[in-house]
Amino acid sequence: MSFDDDYAFEGAAPAPARDNNPPLSISELSFALKRTLEERFGHVRLRGEISKVNRHASGHVYLTLKDDKSAIDGVIWKGVVRGLGVQPETGLEVIVTGKITSYPARSSYQIVIESMEAAGAGALLAQLERLKVKLRDEGLFDPAKKKALPTFPATIGVITSPTGAVIRDILHRIAERWPCRVIVWPVVVQGDAACGQVSNAIRGFDQMTPDGPIPRPDLLIVARGGGSVEDLWCFNDEGLARTVAAARIPIISAVGHETDTTLIDFVSDRRAPTPTGAAEIATPVLADLRWALSDLEGRLSRAGARMLEDRRTRLRAAARGLPARPEDLLALPQQRLDHAASRLGSGLHRNVAVHERQLAVAAGRLTPGLLRARVERGQDRLRGAADRLGAALQAGVARNERRLLQTAGRLSPAPLHRRLDQRQARLEALGVRLDGVMPRRLERAEDRLAALSRALTTLDPKRPKPGFARIENADGAMIASAAALSPGQEVRIVFGDGAKGAIIEGEGPAPRPAPTPKPAPRPKAPPVGQGDLF
């Protein structure tokens, strides 16, 4: 082994030389950059346009700020979001204040936003227009949802600052026009806390009850004096607008001057140009109401007087049409009644005579041959019915016998005998009923025949009734008319109890013509309300 080899393998190994540029870990570098950024840019103000707004479920808001060349991520922690003067929306140009930091997990830097404000009036108005479109699409501006204002409010609630000219003008105007109870809910009307206090006041009034210690107002007025767009911006808050739209009490918005317009003007039930105008809209004029009431009372009195005078005139006109004496009203009807009563007896006699003539005509048509024909027809119908009944009974018995013979082969003797016995019993019962019915029917027919025979006997001209006689010639033939007689002819007059001979002497005196009855006078038309006696 050489000297060099001995030197190489004997003794401890020499120590390595120290490195003056040690390597860093990724975490060391990331946190070093984070500290550097936070120390160097611990407080910055940036102006840019918001894009990519992401509201996380944890309550944090993540967004991006950009201009025409660059962009930076931003984060707003949950505790800061509620206190922002302007809520982040996509497209809004804002000025933010915060600190620059990094997010080591993605090796990116971002700004932690601590405050945010709109970058000028133009940006605020653009944000307001976008919010208007959103609420209009949801129907919060629909006129059909507006509540009607009470005509005569008993209690009015006012939400405004307790100091300043606004509340004094409202109270003075209400006291002058319509003295009523006014409840003031003091709030601040400018700044970040204004929208929350006004919303709480509206909800507080809405939760009151009409019969509570403090009665719920019939109407609310939200009022504020004039100011710049920034001063009035709290009344453009989305949450306040939704609270106004959801209120049960009608609300009049009176924010700023006539040229100022805020978001609650669109969702409220009525907009007033000024706070004083709101007081005038909310209340009627008591003096005008008194004058109108007085005018109505006068018109009512005049109308009543005219109506009474018209009734008096009509009453006097009706009185002039009446007779001087009340009994004159009944004179003419009484006269018509007496005239009708005088004609009643003769009318009844004429009626009886007409019916007697009709009876005589009917009796002349009732001849013995007619009665005899009716009796014979009745007897024929009775004999025909009896013949048909006997034939029907025989046919029924024969039909039953055939059916019995047809079913005899299919039935056992016992049921057959039972059915045969039943049929035999029914047949016997029918025979018994027929034996009982036929004599009764024959008796009734004989009775009717006897009655008709008696009627025929009474009408027989061979046996005249008392007071009547029959004239016969020498041959015994009946003479029915005077034209068949001649002077000197012997006749025989037959009475009911005997006969006497007589000779016709000649023409007798001409019979007196029957007086021609005078035509009955045509009755006058009965008056209205009185019936005809005939």
Automatic annotation (TrEMBL):
Residues 140-366, 372-499 form the Exonuclease VII large subunit C-terminal domain. Residues 24-117 form the OB-fold nucleic acid binding domain. Residues 510-526 have a biased composition (Pro residues). Its main location: cytoplasm. The keyword GTP-binding does not apply. Its EC number is 3.1.11.6. CDD domains: ExoVII_LU_OBF (cd04489). It is found in: Cytoplasm. Pfam families: Exonuc_VII_L, tRNA_anti_2. Residues 502-534 are annotated as: Disordered. It catalyses: Exonucleolytic cleavage in either 5'- to 3'- or 3'- to 5'-direction to yield nucleoside 5'-phosphates. Bidirectionally degrades single-stranded DNA into large acid-insoluble oligonucleotides, which are then degraded further into small acid-soluble oligonucleotides. HAMAP family: Exonuc_7_L. Belongs to the XseA family. This is Exodeoxyribonuclease 7 large subunit.
